[in-house]
């Protein structure tokens, strides 16, 4: 009950009414409304009913405030989960990147750094974009797009991401394999020659492909597009939200 004045003010502003306009509808003075909102006085039961009627709500809302709907709770829960995932990815990136650089300096291998760039960085950027939009939705009321073409756009984005995953799996697997082989070699040898670790198969074909070599290993700036992908996925409603109803 102590917030009833704030509730009246919030509901009045939602209905785009000034204190004078609300006072006229309730047949009281503007000062009376001001006293209600500042807590200097409280409306009686009959006045509460009139306020609720004028503001197109119920008495409970006037007394206790607007209650969160199941959909709103779900959106907030989703934001918390997305934030935690983004936080974990951020900690992983900023913790392991210096270690990968030190590892490269000590062992003359780019494998850990490349693995981070191929896997963690795109995931982090995409989650940053998605989480930012979810925050705007929860706190500022940002809306997802709706329309008959939205499922098609969502499908195209998901297919593009799926193709990216297929694209990076071979180099990730072969980078790990090459590092394991290198470590096994160093257990019995004091040094090694890069020719001893020449890779074949899918990995070799990717390395020899100028486009993939340029994108994945030598030009990381384009990874910022993943934040745009995260924003776009939120806008088109991914993951798809199910309607929540009270039981």
Strand content: under 5%
Shape: elongated
Which ranges are low-confidence, i.e. pLDDT below 50, for 5 or more consecutive residues? Answer: 243-247
What is the C-alpha radius of gyration, as a whole number of Å? 29 Å
> Strand-and-helix sequence, N→C?
HHHHHHHHHHH
Q: How many discrete domains?
A: 2
Through-space gap between termini: 27 Å
* Biggest β-sheet strands, sense, barrel: none
What's the average pLDDT?
83
The total of helices stands at: 11
What is the SS-derived class? mainly alpha
Percent helix range: over 70%
Structure summary, number of beta strands: 0
Write the layout of secondary structure elements.
Layout: H1 4-14, H2 19-26, H3 30-38, H4 45-54, H5 59-64, H6 70-107, H7 111-140, H8 150-188, H9 201-207, H10 210-218, H11 225-235
């Amino acid at each position: 009950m102590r917030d009833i004045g704030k509730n009246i003010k919030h509901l009045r502003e939602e209905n785009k009414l000034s204190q004078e306009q609300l006072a006229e509808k309730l047949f009281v003075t503007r000062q009376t409304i001001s006293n209600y909102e500042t807590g200097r006085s409280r409306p009686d039961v009959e006045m509460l009913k009139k306020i609720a009627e004028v503001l197109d709500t119920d008495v409970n809302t006037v007394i206790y405030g607007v209650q969160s709907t199941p959909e709103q709770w779900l959106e907030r829960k989703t934001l918390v989960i997305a934030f935690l995932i983004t936080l974990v990815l951020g900690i992983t990136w900023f913790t392991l990147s210096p270690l990968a650089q030190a590892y490269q300096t000590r062992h003359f291998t780019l494998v850990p750094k490349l693995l981070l760039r191929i896997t963690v960085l795109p995931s982090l950027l995409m989650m940053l974009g998605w989480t930012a939009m979810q925050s705007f939705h929860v706190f500022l009321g940002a809306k997802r797009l709706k329309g008959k073409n939205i499922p098609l756009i969502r499908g195209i984005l998901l297919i593009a991401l799926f193709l990216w995953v297929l694209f990076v799996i071979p180099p990730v697997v072969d980078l790990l394999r090459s590092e394991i082989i290198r470590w096994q070699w160093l257990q019995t040898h004091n040094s090694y020659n890069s020719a001893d670790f020449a890779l074949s198969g899918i990995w070799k074909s990717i390395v020899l492909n100028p486009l993939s070599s340029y994108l994945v290993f030598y030009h990381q700036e384009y990874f910022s597009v993943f934040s745009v992908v995260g924003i776009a996925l939120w806008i088109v409603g991914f993951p798809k939200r199910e309607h929540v109803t009270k039981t």
